[in-house]
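Figure 6 in text form: structure in, sequence out.
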């Protein structure tokens, strides 16, 4: 859990972070969120009335309007939690919640890599593959605030079962768990993805081929997105995106060979700019947006 105090221009003024594992259960995690807000009020000597509101990004499907967390795939015990109301009662502040990948997209579009583009897919590569879509300069949410799930585009008819319950989704091929397993078969049982990235930077041919394969799976799924939406940019962030040149080269090459020529020529493939801060900046923007 990463927390930050932002000013009205979305500049981070103070920050703190906690392991979600240090909170035993849902109640503990909610208390942790409340404590972190109160800690900022004390340490930064804030008057409560000067706080516009609290924005919270969550790794799972969220009803952003009603303020309900449907569930969190990687944190047990969260099902249909009325988080907005609970936090508002405990803090006496206005609270807004949303999915973290959507907040990342908002932030990258407002102040990051996608600033000058109108139609953008932002995706985060990590354990999960999350996404947020900007269409005509605003976040596209879909009927249930569930749009943008690029990680769950099926890229094969048959394949491994995915965490979403379907099979052969992009995420099962390029999510961290899968690619680390594959990397360890090639480079030994202790290798990290950072090390495989370094090897690729030093032109190790096996490592170059490894990232080329990850990039081509990703590029294949993105070719479909590019054909469908005629985007002007795709922003890639998250841990795996720091694999660098080889991965991006392979994504670009695949889109150029698989997407239709007009759409492929238009789209820029960009690295996310805001790194780990994107979710927090997006959460700040959400508060500003909702309170007009
Ligand atoms: Zn899936």
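Output sequence:
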């Amino acid at each position: 859990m990463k927390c930050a105090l932002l000013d009205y221009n979305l500049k981070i003024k103070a920050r703190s972070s906690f392991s979600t594992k240090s909170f035993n259960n849902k109640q503990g995690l909610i208390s942790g969120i409340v404590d972190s807000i109160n800690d900022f009020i004390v340490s930064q000597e804030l008057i409560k009335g000067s706080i516009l509101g609290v924005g919270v990004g969550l790794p799972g499907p969220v009803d952003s309007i009603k303020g309900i967390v449907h569930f969190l795939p990687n944190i047990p015990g969260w099902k249909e939690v009325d988080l907005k109301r609970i936090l508002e009662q405990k803090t006496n502040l206005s609270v807004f919640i949303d999915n973290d990948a959507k907040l990342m997209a908002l932030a990258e579009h407002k102040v990051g890599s996608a600033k000058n583009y109108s139609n953008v897919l932002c995706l985060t590569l990590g354990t999960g593959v999350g996404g947020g879509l900007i269409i005509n300069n605003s976040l596209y949410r879909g009927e249930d605030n569930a749009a943008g799930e690029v990680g769950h585009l099926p890229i094969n008819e048959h394949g491994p079962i995915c965490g979403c319950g379907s099979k052969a989704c992009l995420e099962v091929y390029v999510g961290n768990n899968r690619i680390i397993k594959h990397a360890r078969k090639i480079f030994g049982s202790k290798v990290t993805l950072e090390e495989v990235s370094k090897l690729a930077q030093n032109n190790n041919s096996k490592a170059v081929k490894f990232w080329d394969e990850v990039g081509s799976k990703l590029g294949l799924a993105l070719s479909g997105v590019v054909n469908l939406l005629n985007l002007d940019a795709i922003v890639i962030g998250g841990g795996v995106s720091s694999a660098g040149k080889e991965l991006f080269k392979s994504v670009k090459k695949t889109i150029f060979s698989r997407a239709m020529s007009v759409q492929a020529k238009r789209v820029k493939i960009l690295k996310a700019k805001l790194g780990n801060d994107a979710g927090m900046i997006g959460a700040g923007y959400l508060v500003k947006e909702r309170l007009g």
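Caption detail: DSSP finds ten helices and twelve strands in the chain.
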